[in-house]
Design a protein that fits this description.
The complex is a heterodimer of chains A (118) and B (76). Chain A has 118 residues and is an alpha+beta fold. In chain A, strand 2 (70-75) and strand 3 form a beta hairpin. Chain A has 3 helices and 4 strands; from the N terminus they run E-H-E-E-H-E-H. By secondary structure, chain B is mainly beta. Chain B has a domain at 13-51: Ubiquitin Ligase Nedd4, Chain: W, CATH 2.20.70. The mean pLDDT of chain B is 74. Classes of the chains: A alpha+beta (118), B mainly beta (76).
């Protein structure tokens, strides 16, 4: 009788550990990475990029205010949160003018960066 | 937009304040009890931040995300 479940065939998936909120520190604290209550950088904003021939995309995006960790919510009224990567790329490449709705949320960005460095 | 930061949570009772972690998650600070929590002291719900969310399917305060291996998990 073979009652043993073949666990070896199951894929191994690593879930993120539960994260506690930052520990309390005295109110005289200097605002730092984990005690920042400056909200404005975390609010969503709309960035418009024009793409004339020859423009360097990175510098254009930088001048418009894009930063590492910005989450792209929508582009030209297309919801990017449920769009496949290939379609998202196609929209960004073919659109002459890009109206991009972004939200600074570097959470996953930092995690991914940590993984890449290893 | 589901991921827009809804600022209703910013009104807080006395002795409470808020902070934002490096990764952009909002947490609440009780200066009297000298403690912190993810949950809003009045609503008891976490602030929805930027993880991907299916607002019609999930209970309030829950968010859906994916590991880099592709596994779906939920954040409360």
């Amino acid at each position: 009788m073979d009652s043993q479940i073949p666990y070896d065939d199951y894929p191994v998936v690593f879930l993120p550990a539960y994260e506690n909120p930052p520990a309390w520190i005295p109110p005289e604290r200097v605002p730092g990475p984990d005690y920042n209550n400056e909200l404005t950088q975390f609010l969503s904003q709309t960035i418009t990029l024009k793409k004339p021939p020859g423009m360097i995309p990175d510098s254009d995006a930088h001048r418009a205010g894009l930063q590492e960790g910005d989450q792209v919510l929508a582009v030209n009224d297309v919801d990017f949160q449920d769009t496949e990567h290939s379609k998202a790329l196609e929209i960004l490449k073919t659109a002459r003018e890009i109206s991009m709705h972004v939200h600074f949320f570097p959470y996953n960005y930092y995690h991914q960066k940590e993984r890449t460095v290893h | 937009m589901a991921a827009d930061l809804n600022l209703e949570w910013i009104s807080l009772p006395r002795s409470w304040t808020y902070g934002i972690t490096r990764g952009g998650r909002v947490f609440f600070i009780n200066e009297e009890a000298k403690s912190t929590t993810w949950l809003h002291p009045v609503t008891g719900e976490a602030v929805v931040t930027g993880h991907r969310r299916q607002s019609t399917d999930l209970p309030t305060g829950w968010e859906e995300a994916y590991t880099f291996e592709g596994a779906r998990y939920y954040i409360n």
